[in-house]
Specification:
The chain is built from seven helices and no strands. By secondary structure, the protein is mostly helical.
């Protein structure tokens, strides 16, 4: 009986400590925000990604990730995805801020795509030049043939 009481108390303590409510991903979110305040963006991105992977409804983590990724031109697609997640937040302030940042980020990404696809590579320019030179040669041949026929017809009319 004496051994049973400490065992019961120990199991009760373990149950009570296990029942403590803690939001999943909150630790990673906290560490990510601390790293963000310390201007350690790489660590902040890693921690916030872990937080959103553990709990997809951490809208603040999605918003912070969206802001961090939007600062880097290569991270714009990821920023757009996280900002879309943050825009679904039940907190109206977070949702509205995320929507305005999302619109700005989408515009920047669209401009980036237009710049990228508007440029032609060296191979494209070379191929285009070859096609233009071939077309030019064909037109010159056609003009020379027409001039020859025209000369022949004039000679026939003069005779």
């Amino acid at each position: 009986m004496n051994r049973l009481i400490p065992l019961c108390l120990l199991s009760l303590c373990l149950c009570m400590s296990a029942c403590r409510r803690q939001e999943v991903g909150a630790d990673h979110y906290t560490q990510g925000m601390e790293a963000m305040k310390a201007h350690n963006d790489d660590v902040a991105i890693q921690e916030l990604q872990l937080a959103t992977a553990e709990n997809a409804s951490l809208f603040q983590a999605h918003f912070a990730l969206g802001r961090l990724c939007a600062a880097n031109p290569e991270g714009l697609p990821l920023a757009i995805w996280h900002l879309r997640q943050a825009a679904q937040s039940p907190d109206a302030t977070v949702a509205q801020t995320a929507k305005s940042l999302l619109a700005e980020t989408e515009k920047r990404f669209l401009l980036q795509l237009q710049e990228h696809w508007g440029k032609e590579t060296g191979q494209d320019a070379e191929l285009r030049n070859q096609l233009l030179l071939e077309q030019n040669r064909k037109l010159n041949d056609w003009i020379a043939r027409l001039n020859s026929e025209n000369y022949t017809l004039r000679q026939m009319l003069l005779n």
